[in-house]
Each structure stands twice: as structure tokens, then as C-alpha cells.
Amino acid sequence: MIRKMTEADLERVIEIWLDACIKGQSFIPEDYWRRHAEVVKKDYIPQSEVYVNEQGNAVNGFIAVVGGRHIGALFVDPDCWHQGIGRGLMEYALDRYKGMITLAAYAENDRAVNFYRRLGFEVKEEEIEAESGCREYIMQGESK
């Protein structure tokens, strides 16, 4: 079941974010992610509309939408990867927020880039993300 995040979900959401970043974006050192967890918790999450996927009273993924037009985060507990949770969260957001949607994905994260391409997103520009120094794709897609 997908539902709006509550304050009680926050610690679990940050745990999922950290675990998924460490496992799925291992080209960036683990300490980078650990240093940024508090910023995500205190700055990024409060600026977003966050929806969680819950199965059996356990949150196992989330999506954060900024300004109704940008997917700021999509993360699934690594133990639950390849179960359709990320796709379900994306489809939920694309159904809820109509029009052109943007997101950013690290160029080295082939799994994520290919996932977004399968959903109809295209790379519109490439930049170097300032803090990590990694190449990042700005991708765009349209909800129908």
C-alpha cells in the first residue's frame, strides 16, 4: 500500500535512503552518504511530498516529490529490490503529478538510469554534481 509519509516513518525512510545509497551507489564512498543523512532528514525530506510503500506494517520504499514536478528521491530497501516496489512508487507519482517530470540520476548508476529509461524518461542534460564530483544526468519524462 502506498500512502503519505508520517513523522513516525521518518527514521525508517532515512534508513532506507542510507542503505540503498551505500549499496546502489558504491562508486561514492560510504562516509559521503553517512555525512549527508542528517541533511536529507532535516532539509530535503521536509521540502518534499513523500509517499511510502508499506507491506505488512513495514515501510520498504519511498518517493519524494519536490514542487510537484521533480522526483527528488526514489529509494527501496535493498532487501526488497526487484519486487516492483520502485516501479509502483514511480507509477503512483506519475499518476498523481501530471505533466513534465524531472529527476537526477548518477551516470554511473546504470541500474537506475535504465530503470528510468524504461519508464519513458530521457537524458536532457549532463552535469557534475558539486558535492560528490560525479556525473549526473538530468532526466525528463511526462506523466499521462
Automatic annotation (TrEMBL):
A GO term, aspect molecular function: acyltransferase activity, transferring groups other than amino-acyl groups
Membrane-spanning residues: none
Matching PROSITE patterns: GNAT (PS51186)
Pfam family, one: Acetyltransf_7
Residue ranges of domain N-acetyltransferase in the record: 1-144
Keyword tRNA processing attached: no
Keywords: Acyltransferase, Transferase
NCBIfam families with a match to the protein in the record: PRK10562.1 (NF007853)
PANTHER family: PEPTIDYL-LYSINE N-ACETYLTRANSFERASE YJAB
Name under which the protein is recorded: N-acetyltransferase domain-containing protein
Natural source organism: Eubacterium callanderi
